[in-house]
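Lab manual, section 2.4: Encoding a predicted structure.

Procedure: take the sequence of the chain (172 residues), apply the prediction step described in section 2.3, and record the output as structure tokens. A sample record is shown.
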Amino acid sequence: MNDRFKAVDLETLPDNVFKLISRDWMLITAGSAKHYNTMTANWGGLGYLWKRHVCYCFVRPQRYTYQFMESTPAFSLTFFAERYRSALELCGSRSGRNLDKATASGLTPIEITPGITSFAEARLVFECKKIYAQDIDPACFIDPDVAEIYPTRDYHRVYIGEIIHAWGSQAT
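Recorded output:
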């Protein structure tokens, strides 16, 4: 374990998970600290499914992070204090194919657990093992307004991950 972080009990998490994801945003990161990509997201959720604490997140196939999500068994969801908003904006607007996002944003990649990359500046990290993935099927939309979110039909893949570790910053 990294001395910057302490284990967090998911059953007593003080955060409002709706705000945590939709307004505070998160980084979805897959790959090792030597070869990874990260992207900003504000779609997803946390819950309990199949007798496990889980998260779910969405990645479009054209995103660089997608190939890392597909080729690795685990990923992280990382949350930051508001002062890192500009770093999250950069990570959500630039591609890691041609930019080192960590260097450009000032974030420091670390592996709290070997093979799962997060960032030293995080206030909260969920390390997740992939347990399910499926492409969104537009034939399953019940509310037709949802389909309007995809005018170019570039549907996401949904990943469900079992949260295997939750870490909070020792600084908070």
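Check your result against the sample. The first strand starts at residue 5 and ends at 7.
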